[in-house]
Amino acid sequence: MFDAISRWRQRRVLKRAAIPDALWSEAIRQLPFLAIYDAADLARLREKVVLFLDAKGIVGARGHAVTPLQRVIISIQACVLVLELDLALYNGFENVIVYPGEFVPDWEWEDDAGVVHRNIGALAGEAMPGGPVVLSWPDVEASADWAASGMNLVIHEFAHKIDMQAGDANGCPPLPATMSAAAWQRALTAAYEDFCARFDEGEDTAIDPYASESPAEFFAVASEVFFAEPLLLRSEYPEAYAQFAAFYRQDPAQRARRNP
Ligand SMILES: [Zn+2]
């Protein structure tokens, strides 16, 4: 019964809030990593984006006015992660806040010794537990083209949000019962430790060195690579790639081979 109601509600939203074709096409054009998606993938992505936009506000702050195109560009990248998953993975927050540039967070945190810290420097994006996703628009724009930037800010922050659904961000998202938490930990820890060792040796890695920061950052950065440059993650860390494919229920490397 509940399912029937929620399906009915979804159909109503999809009808009411459709995205105009020209707007959709322009947003896709500005996200070249989607070139490997076929028409069926894109159609499902478009439905997900409509449902996402119905559930979340995307609001400008500090004088930034969010345009309809910016709204769709942000939503598409957020929805790539949950294309085959339930949007409920993004429950627990209402808004995406968009700033006109980098921002200095104004929260405080207390370390294990009881010392209170403030202001860790300017950020391009942030995902706060129980709070909004915050993005700097120029950084969203710059990282929309993976080939030029080698990173994707929106995928990164929404990967943190998914990670946080299973408690603190620690690099382990809420795994379905069909997946083994031990196998996930084994594959991801091995990949993280190998990456940190390469970073410590001064290797110029193809994957963003920020991944060496913590297991949580490794998960967020590797999620960017999984979606935007899947063949790279699969060749560098095949076991982590396999875990990601099982969790996200997608095989983007296969997609890249099919539609090179
Ligand atoms: Zn991060």
Structure description:
By secondary structure, this protein is of the alpha/beta class. The chain has helices spanning 2-16, 21-29, 39-55, 68-80, 137-142, 146-149, 153-164, 181-200, 215-228, 230-236, 238-248, 252-258; strands spanning 57-60, 95-99, 108-110, 116-118, 125-127, 133-136. The strands form 2 sheets. It has a 4-stranded mixed beta sheet. Strand 1 (57-60), helix 4 and strand 2 (95-99) form a beta-alpha-beta unit. Residues 156, 160, 217, 220 line the site of zinc ion.
SSE order and pairing:
Layout: H1 2-16, H2 21-29, H3 39-55, E1 57-60, H4 68-80, E2 95-99, E3 108-110, E4 116-118, E5 125-127, E6 133-136, H5 137-142, H6 146-149, H7 153-164, H8 181-200, H9 215-228, H10 230-236, H11 238-248, H12 252-258
Parallel strand pairs: 1-2, 2-6
Antiparallel strand pairs: 3-4, 5-6
The structure holds zinc ion.
Looking at this protein, list some descriptive labels.
two-stranded antiparallel ribbon; binds zinc ion; four-stranded mixed beta sheet; 6 strands; alpha/beta; 260 residues; 52% helix; globular
How would you concisely characterize the structure shown here?
This protein has 260 residues and is of the alpha/beta class. It is built from 12 helices and 6 strands.
Biggest beta sheet summary: 4 strands, mixed
Order of helices and strands: HHHEHEEEEEHHHHHHHH
Shape: globular
**Which strand order do you get reading across the main beta sheet?**
1-2-6-5
Q: Helix share of residues?
A: 40-55%
SS-based class: alpha/beta
Q: What ligands does this structure carry? A: zinc ion
Alpha-carbon distance between the termini? 43 Å
Task: Provide the β-strand percentage band.
Answer: 5-15%
**DSSP helix count?**
12
Mean pLDDT metric: 92
Q: Tally of extended strands? A: 6
Radius of gyration: 18 Å
